[in-house]
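Entry for IPE complex. Fields follow.
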Amino acid sequence: MKSSNLIIIKLGGSVVTFKEKPLTPNYDGIEKILGVLNEIKENFKIIIVHGGGSFGHYWSVKYDMHTKPYPYSDLGVSVVHDSMIELNHIITNKFIESKLKPYSIQPSAFVFNSKADPARIHDIVDMTSGNDLIPITFGDIIHTSGNNFSILSGDTIMSMLCTELHPKFSIFTTNVDGLYSDMSKGEIVREIQVDEADIGNILSEGKEKIEHSDSPFDVTGGMKRKMTESIQIANSGTPVYLINGFHPERILDIIHDRHYIGTCIRMRSGS
Ligand code: IPE
């Protein structure tokens, strides 16, 4: 069942930081989205997930840390985690300045050994049922088992939350307009209809389409991971929208069922 007034939004690292400039927040990128959030909070419960951009990814590359569980360097684990807390703090401060009420949740509060705990996820929603708090979580380095840690992408967190909570909309923002069908002409794919069988196909046939936005600082797989997670979410019944976070008014277009620029991934009708 869909939660009719819940919207889950990923603020991509390429929106909240300058991805190519180490440890540099993009205040304009963060601020632009706040006005839209202030508007939609009147009618929707919001959950925010943000990425690592030039904070988490920068240090993950330096310490050679990836999404595979492994006994990575202790210092690397500390530094990556710390950089994500710092970025989260920068973002939540901006939220508070603009009169939004964020409540930070480290992903280790609901992900154990790479699996999401459904009860903890539902607690996040319960926590906000009678107030205006906006839960905000983020990609991070988290413990898996034994001495192992792994990078958990905000995109994976999106699919953990969306497949459990069935929001009305799931929106991924990045620094591009959507999924390109032809990079050179700047053409965007408007809609992709998927079913379970499509994950492998889309990832292999659409290789050139989905690898376009990877940057030198990216340990979680760029557009490719976004597609894998989006297909999971779409298959659970929630449409996924990939839009440009520097044009957050497109979120309003989606909510109000107007024409928008971006890519929608939804379950194939009849499947
Ligand atoms: C990455 O999160 C988190 C770390 C590297 C610690 P994401 O994979 O969601 O980040 P972006 O959105 O691609 O920057």
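NOTE: The mean pLDDT is 91.
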